[in-house]
Design goal:
Elements (H helix, E strand, L loop, with lengths): L1 H25 L2 E4 L3 E7 L2 E2 L1 E6 L11 H6 L3 E3 L1 E2 L2 E5 L4 E7 L3 E4 L9 H5 L2 E4 L5 E12 L4 H7 L3 H18 L18 H7 L1 H11 L3 H5 L1 E12 L2 H86 L9
Antiparallel strand pairs: 1-7, 2-3, 2-6, 2-8, 4-5, 9-11, 10-11, 11-12
Helix pairs in contact: 5-7
Length: about 325
């Protein structure tokens, strides 16, 4: 009986050791995929890089002083791709994918059915026209601010999407067409949606610039935004089309009138140039003759000049049919 008890105890001990090795040692080995990064915590505290914070990192350059105080996160030790790595039972590993993802700008992570199931985002223009916007945004997890993504924000994607939508709606509501490259004011159509459609590139560039701080705020980096269409409500589509047709006709008439005026100005300038050349052609022989007479007077004196005038007079006499002479 004592031998049976000893055998059971030995079996329990061996089973416990095997369970411990499998549960806490073998299971503690992990790897990190190529498109992943990992952060390890010990008793719930992430391993940090000394006292370094994101306030000293270049990703915080777009934040103002108040925002830096709000969005300062510690720099954590990032585990790169590879392995195998080991963790103790009191440690936990958080893996995140840093691959670039593309979603509709109307996507709502909290309510996927919102915004027509994430297809059209509504916004109001400065002339109170309710428009529908569609497009995509590309984003990825910022490796330089994993603390904010994993521990700082409960749902960072929802925060980034909300921030993006608020900036976009503010831009749509206050948009004015930018000046031309030479600084002259842009021609306003009077219809904000037309200005928006003609300046989609400027709007996209503005969104990229304004959302450049998302990595420092939420640990999510917005790579690019692409607004593909801006459409008015169906009930005003026909009226807007008629207005655009009339505006295009007026613009065409103005362009034709301006082209005609430019053509007349060019013709007038050419006529002035031609008359100027004719006048120069008539004056030039007289100038040459005056120059020759001055040279003749300087070299031969008054007698030479008188002889020249007499010779010229004789030539004129030969061509004249009648001569009238004054008699004193």
């Amino acid at each position: 009986m004592p031998e049976l008890t000893a055998g059971i105890s030995l079996g329990l001990l061996i089973g416990f050791i095997a369970w411990f090795l499998v549960r806490y040692l073998v299971a503690g080995i992990f790897t990190v995929n190529q498109n992943e990064r990992a952060v390890k915590t010990s008793f719930g505290r992430a391993q940090r890089l000394g006292d370094a914070t994101t306030a000293e990192d270049p990703i915080s350059a777009s934040l103002n002083a108040d925002e830096i105080l709000r969005y300062t996160y510690p720099q954590v030790r990032v585990i790169p791709p590879g392995g195998p790595y080991f963790k103790w039972p009191w440690e936990q590993v958080y893996k995140v994918s840093i691959a670039t993802e593309t979603v509709s700008m109307a996507y709502d992570p909290m309510t996927p059915s919102a915004n027509n199931s994430g297809t059209v985002l509504e916004a109001v223009t400065k002339d109170q026209l309710n428009t529908g916007l569609s497009g995509q945004i590309r984003f990825k997890i910022s490796e330089r601010n994993l603390y904010a993504y994993i521990f700082g924000v409960k749902n960072p994607i929802a925060h980034v999407m909300g921030y993006f939508v608020s900036v976009l709606r503010e831009r749509i509501a206050n948009f004015e067409a930018p000046n031309a490259a030479d600084g002259t004011p842009a021609i306003q159509t009077g219809i904000s949606i037309n200005d928006l459609r003609k300046n989609l590139r400027d709007i996209n560039e503005h969104m990229d610039k304004e959302c450049g701080s998302s990595a420092a705020r939420y640990g999510v980096q917005l790579d690019a935004s692409l607004i593909t269409s801006i459409d008015p409500p169906q009930e005003v589509e026909s009226a807007l089309a008629a207005i655009n047709t009339a505006h295009n006709q007026v613009s065409s008439d103005i362009s034709l009138a301006q082209a005609s005026a430019d053509q007349k100005i060019v013709q007038s300038r050419r006529a002035v140039e031609i008359e100027t050349l004719k006048a120069q052609a008539e004056v030039e022989p007289l100038r040459l003759m005056a120059s020759q007479l001055a040279e003749l007077k300087a070299n031969g004196g008054e007698a030479a000049l008188g002889a020249y005038v007499r010779n010229v007079g004789l030539g004129l006499y030969a061509q004249a049919g009648r001569l009238m002479k004054e008699v004193k």
